[in-house]
């Protein structure tokens, strides 16, 4: 029996890890959408954008068996302007930061706080990207996508996308049914934005307000955010990475009180009577992982939430580093850090252990 040829996915993931699949199809025009039932059939499928928030767990020995659908749909257009809002349609294959620049160059506000976030427009709502006080869910009007289950194009209003912290109906479906059984291929996103003079500017985030000179504008905020991110985050061309590697944990208020008593400087935010959100970066840094390395995979020495590839990191290096941090943080603080990137794996048990490995910890501690 002839072995299927291997397709390298190294260029399609931000960490530049050697990863492989056996079949790939580029989706670069809408006419292909109608052919999808014949192209995909009943095969497992994975929709891929720029791979800026993906951690691949696949090897030459065990490549991804799914059909990888590379979303390269391009185009940006103004739909209409009404009620002091501007509605813009952006296709899923566009680069996110290029789209933000496109809006700013046309004096359109609303996305300036999301400047310099890597990835594609189609991937942004899946993760509900957010930064400096703004989440993309509050800028989306609706999404059009191909539904593999219904075998037709569907129109989904923002309120039906079930957006949450780094979550959405798109991500939740893939978590429940598996990333290799993706139900939705996002075609384009319709955004509700504002003319510059009507834009609700968010400047309260630390670092932005202090750096503002004079009256704030979308372009000024974007420039400040770019400067902050450039200073804090590694250059992708020199140190491949996928941004924040762990989610900020939300914990019960009872645990938060215990930790505050033991660690008085621990930062809390988004506090309610029942819960508090903590800084994953603070937890990792105080556990002495800043600059820590396993092989060529390491924690960035300027930001403890970012895993970087120092040159020749392999999947095993990143996986081992992730587990080391998770176990250490759990033992020290009683908190399990959940990886923020989407884990696409040929090894189901390993992927599961990174997301739900509590039983391993209890076994080891007991």
Proportion of strand residues: 25-35%
Annotated CATH architecture of the domain at 241-365: Alpha-Beta Complex
Shape: globular
**Main sheet makeup:** 6 strands, antiparallel
Q: What is CATH's topology name of the domain at 241-365?
A: Uridine Diphospho-n-acetylenolpyruvylglucosamine Reductase, domain 1
Mean pLDDT level: 91
**Category from helices, strands and their pairing:** alpha+beta
CATH superfamily grouping of the domain at 241-365: UDP-N-acetylenolpyruvoylglucosamine reductase, C-terminal domain
Low-pLDDT stretches are 359-366
Distance between the termini: 48 Å
Radius of gyration (Å): 21 Å
H/I helix tally: 11
Can you walk through the features of this model?
The protein is α+β, with helices and mostly antiparallel strands. Among the domains are: 76-141 and 186-232, Uridine Diphospho-n-acetylenolpyruvylglucosamine Reductase, domain 3; 241-365, Uridine Diphospho-n-acetylenolpyruvylglucosamine Reductase, domain 1. Helix content is 27%, strand content 27%. The strands form six sheets. Strands 6, 7, 8, 11, 12 and 13 form a six-stranded antiparallel sheet that branches. The termini are far apart. The relative contact order is 0.13.
Which structural traits does this protein have?
six-stranded antiparallel β-sheet; globular; 366 residues; disordered C terminus; 27% helix; Uridine Diphospho-n-acetylenolpyruvylglucosamine Reductase, domain 1; Uridine Diphospho-n-acetylenolpyruvylglucosamine Reductase, domain 3; 21 strands; four-stranded mixed β-sheet; alpha+beta; 11 helices
């Amino acid at each position: 029996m002839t072995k299927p040829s291997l397709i390298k996915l190294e260029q399609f993931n931000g960490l530049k890890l050697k990863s492989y699949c056996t079949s790939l199809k580029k989706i670069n025009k809408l006419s292909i959408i109608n052919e999808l039932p014949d192209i995909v059939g009943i095969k497992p499928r994975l929709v891929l954008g720029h791979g800026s928030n993906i951690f691949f767990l696949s090897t030459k020995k065990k490549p991804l068996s799914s059909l990888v659908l590379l979303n390269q749909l391009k185009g940006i257009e103004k739909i209409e302007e009404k009620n002091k809002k501007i509605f813009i349609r952006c296709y899923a294959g566009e680069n996110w930061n290029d789209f933000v620049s496109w809006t700013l160059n046309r004096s359109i506000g609303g996305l300036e706080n999301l400047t310099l976030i890597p990835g594609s427009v189609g991937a942004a709502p899946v993760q509900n990207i957010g930064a400096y006080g703004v989440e993309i869910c509050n800028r989306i009007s609706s999404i059009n996508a191909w539904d593999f289950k219904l075998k037709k194009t569907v129109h989904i209003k923002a309120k039906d996308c079930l957006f949450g912290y780094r979550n959405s109906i798109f991500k939740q479906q893939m978590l429940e049914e598996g990333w290799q059984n993706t139900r939705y291929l996002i075609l384009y996103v319709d955004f509700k934005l504002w003319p510059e003079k009507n834009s609700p500017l968010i400047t309260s985030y630390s670092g932005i307000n202090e750096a503002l000179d004079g009256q704030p504008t979308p372009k000024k905020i974007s420039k400040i955010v770019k400067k902050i991110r450039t200073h804090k985050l590694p250059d992708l061309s020199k140190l491949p990475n996928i941004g924040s590697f762990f989610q900020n944990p939300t914990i019960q208020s009872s645990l938060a009180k215990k930790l505050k008593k033991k660690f008085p400087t621990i930062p809390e935010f988004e506090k309610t009577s029942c819960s508090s959100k903590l800084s994953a970066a603070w937890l990792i840094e105080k556990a002495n992982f800043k600059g820590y390395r396993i092989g060529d995979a390491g924690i960035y020495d300027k930001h403890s939430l970012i895993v970087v590839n120092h040159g020749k990191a392999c999947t095993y290096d990143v996986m081992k580093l992730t587990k080391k941090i998770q176990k250490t943080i759990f033992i020290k603080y009683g908190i399990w850090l959940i990886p923020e990137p989407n884990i696409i794996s040929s090894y189901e048990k390993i992927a599961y252990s990174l997301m739900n490995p509590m039983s391993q910890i209890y076994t080891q501690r007991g």
